[in-house]
Amino acid sequence: MQEEKSLMRKIFRRVYWENLSTILILIGVFMLLQPFAMWMFTYSFIVILVGTIGFIITSHFPD
To answer: If DSSP states are collapsed to H, E and C, what string results for the chain?
Structure first.
């Protein structure tokens, strides 16, 4: 039981998931500001929203 808890603590570390959420937000902002593809502009808000929600959730993970 202790090994499972330790494994879960290793997987759900705040640093990794917050960085991933931040990168997702930055990708969404890039998609919003690029002038090349309309499909990227169309999905940019969803990507930013998912990144923001992910950041809020992961800010409650243990250090």
So the answer is: CHHHHHHHHHHCCHHHHHHHHHHHHHHHHHHHHCCCCHHHHHHHHHHHHHHHHHHHHHCCCCC
